[in-house]
Amino acid sequence: MRFGICYYPEHWPPERWEADAQLMQQAGITLIRVAEFAWSVIQPTADQYEWQWLDDVIALFGRYGIDTMIGTPTATPPIWLTRQHPDILHVDSNLQPREHGGRKHYCPNSPTYRAHSHTIVTKMVERYGQHPHVVGWQIDNEFGESNSARCYCTHCEAAFHQWLRERYSAIATLNEAWGAVFWSQTYSEWAQIPLPSDNNPRPNPSHKLDYYRFASDSFVSYQAEQIAILRTHAPHHVVTHNYMGLFPELDCFDLARPLDFAAWDNYPTGFPDQWRDMIDDTQANYAYDVGDPGVMGLAHALMYGLKQRPYWVMEQQCGHINWGKMNPRSRPGTPRLWTWHAVAEGADTIVYFRWRATVLAHENYHSGLLKQDGTPDVGYRDLLMLQQERALLDETAAQPNAAAVAILFSYDDLWAQELQPHRHDWHYLQAIYNWYDALRRQGINVHLVNDTADLAPYSTLIAPSAHIVTDPLVAKLTEYAQKGGTVILGVRSGFKTESNRVTERPLPGQLRDLVGATVVDWSPLPDNVTVTLSCNILSGTAGYWLEHLETETAEAVATTADGTVLTRNQVGDGQLFYVGWWPTSGQIQDLMAHLGVTSDVLLPAGVVHKRRGERSILLNFTDQVQVVHLGDRVVSIAPRDVAVVTR
Ligand code: GLA
Ligand code: ZN
């Protein structure tokens, strides 16, 4: 594995760079990521390019054995570009264009922007594509960040029309797919179709889902343009992009497909705040400065599942940040814990953010490995500790990352349910998290995959809510079950067609043959309403959402006084379960135990277990000593410490 650092040499005088290189070398850093926001430094005016500083940086750090990963600087178009061509600006959902002075103020569908982006990326890779100390490229920075994933400008409107034409060919087909007859929405020309901005308080969910897909595809296509340039001029370099973990507005599977590997930015005290309303793990008693390893673990599982292979953490938090709710300082040992967590979950390169805390602008309250004064901070000292245990880290990163269970993740389902949650607090991500977390608490490895994944490695595939169903999905699930896999479907599965209409077939629509039963009624349940279950494999009550089924080929596994709520259907050598309520953690664990998916790990709350080959990695996210049972072994772990046990 490898350690790197996000470095902003343009923020400091060149006389300082060599001292930085020395300090990096002493801490085992062999990679800098540079230039992803340096467009105005490289191209201060339309016809002027300044390369010398970057040439010098790459050469100087190369002399210290430190390679360079270049970020294409397109996240920050310079002022000469935004002033000369305001049509490149991102337009918000309230139809207001962005102002210059932040970042991500561009539209990926602006032809002017694409032309300038093409030029700057080409110039950069022509210069550095064969450089002996440059190893790869990060495209742009965090697509969708600063609320920029969905743009409502006139270029997007035109591009959306083109996207719809390609999808539906005839306007009548679109009208049919969207149910446009409803409320007189019927269109007669592509050019009439609006973007679903905030000016429409009652949008058609079919229209809006297609717009979400289009917005995501816009970044896929913009990224593809950069990839093509980079691969042409730097065929031996790696190319990636830094995702934001569980960020819900862009389809990371689509974005990751053409990349060499996935990468993401891991901020444990920032991201969990964003999911607080759906995940509140107060019982775990996590230390105040570690964040929530359940949420971060889910993001890691997704990042691994994007390509079912090791990924990079392109920005690893290494101290306090400036954009969370509380932003506590990291105590010694916490950056080390996060690093071990990332490696345990499947990262094989850790690039910290950032080298030296800046004194400048928006992020001058953000920490780095060094303080603003240039001396080591907590993160740097933790990195020195990690270098002491480097052999163990390297060995761990090289172990297989196998999982018996995969969870099916679909951005289409996420978007469709966000548009129509039906009960106000329904979150697709929470449905995913509940299943993930029930397994995580038992120390069972889980990957998040989409419907293009290789499912052969998994004995069980859980789709907490396979809401929108397509022919390929049905074929995939059928083949998987027929070959011996177990599929578990949760509520609201099979409800929608690809264009977000409700299916006209009996529920669960196209999945009905596989399920071997019909969903005859469904309802959210108020929080104070639960229904008693009668079942041999799990106990308790059903709540949150309830569906009753009438069995055909399936057998009834759990019933309420009103009917069947859990079914099992034999499918070839495998089987399919339909769970007609929102199961608790304990119920999920009982069902999995019935399927033979168990572990011999007894984990106290607040401890994470990850199995890697013959190793068990145990991470204590609390401030107390914790005792873990691994089979008949008892392992005690100090507060915020890590134990690696060979089994
Ligand atoms: C994001 C960005 C970085 C920086 C950090 C701060 O992840 O990619 O440029 O702003 O957040 O935490
Ligand atoms: Zn736009």
Describe this protein's structure:
The chain has about 650 residues and is of the alpha/beta class. The chain has 3 domains: about 1-150 and about 215-395, TIM Barrel (Alpha-Beta Barrel); about 405-595, Class I glutamine amidotransferase (GATase) domain (Rossmann fold); about 600-645, no CATH class. Helices cover about 30% and strands about 20% of the residues. A 9-stranded parallel β-sheet has the order 5-4-3-2-1-9-8-7-6. Helix 1 links the parallel strand 1 (about 1-5) and strand 2 (about 30-35). The longest helix is centred in the middle third of the chain and has 29 residues, at about 205-235. The mean pLDDT is about 95. Bound molecules: alpha-D-galactopyranose and zinc ion. Zinc ion binds near residues 109 and 151.
Q: Using the alpha-carbon principal axes, give the shape.
A: globular
Uncertain segments: none
CATH architecture of the largest domain: Alpha-Beta Barrel
Class derived from helix and strand content: alpha/beta
Report the top-level CATH class of the largest domain.
Alpha Beta
CATH-defined fold name of the largest domain: TIM Barrel
